[in-house]
Amino acid sequence: MIKFIQCIRKKPDMSVQDFRRSWKAYQAKATELAKAMNAAGLTFFTTLNVEENLQVMLTRGTSEPFDGVAEFRISNAPRTIEALSREPGKSLMESMQRSQTEFVDLENSSFFFAAEDVVLRR
Questions:
Q1: Which DSSP letter does residue 116 get?
Q2: Three-state SS for 28?
Q3: Which of 40, 55, 64, 81 is 20 to 30 A removed from 74 (C-alpha atoms)?
């Protein structure tokens, strides 16, 4: 399984509440795109605003967590690429990219493809 992962940081001047509203709207767009590209699945993660995250960051010396993560699961890369090159996939992708410019700090976010290697599933 191939994954397309988006690790997203909100724009610096954006409140957490505004980010989460934009994130929900983004989820709806991503869901439509995932359907159009025949994705095997789509998962969204929103970072919890809890003391434990701060403790992990301080004790482990890591950077701040991302505000949100989106994970598209792709089982057939050629079919996905084809779906994104024609309608409605092409327009949906463009709409998502426009949406990203409104609330995503692109310079401090990371988008990448990864191979899944399941080592434990219960």
A1: -
A2: helix
A3: 64
